[in-house]
């Protein structure tokens, strides 16, 4: 504590940040670690593990653009793995935003059921996880109002006709988005050479927080890629705040994605890393096959808080670093024992300079990432939430599940914000089941018939209306 205070005073006097995060001297690949220069002078450490069955070939990697499928040459094994298998799903929905801030979503395509998330032996998963399944919401297309005003009753003969009520102005939508596409969803096995897994950490973390997942899936034969964000882990730490905005970090990850992407890519993000996975899934819908969001929060646009403690000067944050580390341990883990402290140390979590931490928190500005942006995603998404998470409330992930087209929410009762470190076996099992999952579209016709019967009997339609605060 005294050392931190002394260094903080020196930081204030000299005007220089202490405890800078610097890259390793060697840029040679070692034990799966590589150093990639995404921009001149901007180097990220990346852990890239390729199974022995598959040599690294540049021409087999996808360029990450709309013409990637034409430019990429695949082996017969790759074509057999993803072209001739999988289920075709009709993704269709209408998203309407009204001037009063009301968001109306109409799901008009196929509905995916969540019975697929079971353990490998066929039994239901342990009771430590709770499953929330979404229903299919529809709305009458001709009117956004579920309670229309009945026509007026004509007066009896001989009575004066009352003055007609004022005509209600028909609400005009401020914005309408229609999604209508086909998506092939297939099982992604470790033996498939066209599958790559990308792991993205959040603020204060590093690729080391994914150690259990990287080891587990690489042993199963998956190709795994996990970068350190700028200023984190062993990546370079530029001493300029603009280097840590959302857009700057997103462009870094775009470069990493384009370098290592295959035909079918699965993105796994944690906390702030979920926003970058959402960005990549929105930018490259044909290359992103599935997404996993771990304690990522609700589908709201990012905006930094002006009253946050992270707005204090870097030297003050450096003095408070022991308190911040203890607070992160208390809020990020369900238990605060020696095991959790060791996990925090091994994962190199919350081990960033005060300048980087302040710049990261101040740079979380992403106005495009609102509800409509998330509602436009057609990729299947698994949401994993730790019940004891004090950073991300449960209702935020539930709201995310309501907005997304194909989403399955899993709650781990004994987990917190760092659930992938606290409960690695449970998280690895959930992720693996989701990777192997392929929708059974044979139930499509029977489900449609049952839905039509239900609607005919009740003569009601469910309307999903989500009120949000928007700029008018």
Automatic annotation (TrEMBL):
Residues 196-312 form the AB hydrolase-1 domain. Residues 55-89, 140-175 are annotated as: Disordered. This is Protein ABHD8. The keyword Chloroplast does not apply. Residues 166-175 have a biased composition (Basic residues). It comes from Stegastes partitus (bicolor damselfish). Residues 145-157 have a biased composition (Pro residues). Belongs to the AB hydrolase superfamily. Keywords: Hydrolase. GO terms for cellular component: mitochondrion. PANTHER family: PROTEIN ABHD8 (PTHR42886:SF83), RE40534P-RELATED (PTHR42886). The keyword Cell inner membrane does not apply. GO terms for molecular function: carboxylic ester hydrolase activity; lysophosphatidic acid acyltransferase activity. The gene is ABHD8. One of its GO terms (biological process) is lipid homeostasis.
